[in-house]
UniProtKB/TrEMBL annotation:
It comes from Paractinoplanes lichenicola. This is TetR/AcrR family transcriptional regulator.
Length: 193
């Protein structure tokens, strides 16, 4: 009779692999994951089947963590105006705690690693629309969620390309100032209601 897989061991290994990938990126070989998890190549294959399956599970678990983290950042708070929430969320997303997610998923968006997760681009866009729409609803403009998402994603891509976070921070502040005008008047930048 063969051994039964132990889900808690698989989970511990996967969490160690995610921690490593967030700190160092996805590895080309299994050896970094072997070291990070304190396991062996044989055990990784036993629990995940293939290298690509382990990489995919690592990405999915990291994405779950990111959704929880960013989701809490983007959630409206009763004691805080939503544009203040957006500013604080931006600082956390682009700061030390959020940066590993941006690095990992920015590379995935541009990379051949997308073959591991073919629907990633679409999911990475639609994931954030609902919390942003809910937050923008508190200022009476839920339809601006797509604009907010586009500004955030565009500035994140700018940071990834240039590394100029202070310039992107200033641009985000300018965007929030424009958004404050739009929400105060109930009109978009083109003047349409």
């Amino acid at each position: 009779m063969g051994r039964h897989k132990q889900p808690e061991i698989r989970d511990r290994i996967l969490n160690a692999c995610v921690d490593h990938a967030l700190a160092h990126g996805l590895p080309d070989r299994l050896e970094p994951f072997v070291k990070a998890s304190g396991s062996s190549t044989r055990m990784l294959i036993y629990h995940f089947g293939t290298r690509d399956a382990l990489l995919y599970e690592t990405l999915r678990r990291a994405r779950q963590r990111q959704r929880l983290f960013y989701g809490s950042l983007l959630s409206a708070r009763q004691d805080e105006p939503y544009l203040v929430t957006l500013r604080r969320a931006w600082q956390a997303m682009t700061g030390p705690e959020g940066r590993p997610y941006l690095s990992m998923f920015g590379r995935l968006r541009e990379d051949t690693e997308q073959q591991l997760w073919p629907t990633f681009k679409r999911e990475a866009t639609t994931d954030w629309l609902q919390p942003l729409e809910d937050g923008m609803r508190t200022v009476g403009r839920p339809e601006l969620a797509t604009l907010v998402l586009a500004a955030i994603r565009g500035l994140i891509m700018d940071i990834e390309a240039t590394g100029d976070t202070p310039r992107a921070d200033r641009a985000f502040d300018d965007f929030l100032a424009a958004l404050a005008l739009m929400t105060a008047t109930g009109r978009t930048a083109t003047g349409a209601s």
